[in-house]
Amino acid sequence: MNVALELEVKNTYEDFILEKDIMYFRVGEHGLVSFHGKNYHVKKRLNTEEIQNITSDSSFFKVNTDSYVNTRKIQHIGDGKVFFEVRGSESKYTSITKLRQHKLKEIVLQQKADA
Fold it and tell me: Which of 38, 53, 57, 68 is buried most deeply by CB count within 10 Å?
């Protein structure tokens, strides 16, 4: 009985769902992508096609040259930063260029209006 229960446990590090589990990701050199979740980050090597698929996903917005944020996980945008989940000293955040900050605010407001 215990064996069957152990098989059903999801391995967050290997089997995460991009839109649901990931707050933001960064694309590095040679296909190395760093995925950042609520309490972890995972680095995976992806091929060119896989990188094109995730960077063109409508759930993610390009905030600078190599970083993409999950627009559905954003809590606050300001001072050149995008904050996720909890605010304060425990906040997860990534930086955003001033040029893209305005556009991202519009997208987030539109999503909240649609919800």
Answer: 68
Question: Rounded CA gap, 21 and 35, in Å?
Answer: 9
Give the span between the Cα atoms of 50 and 53, in whole angstroms: 5
Total number of domains in the chain: 1
- Report the share of the chain in percent with pLDDT over 90: 64
- Which residue is listed with tokens 């680095």? 43
Q: What is the pTM of this model?
A: 0.84
pLDDT, tens digit, 9 for 90 and up, residues 53-79:
999 999 999 999 999 999 999 999 998
Helices (H) then strands (E): counts for the chain: 4, 8
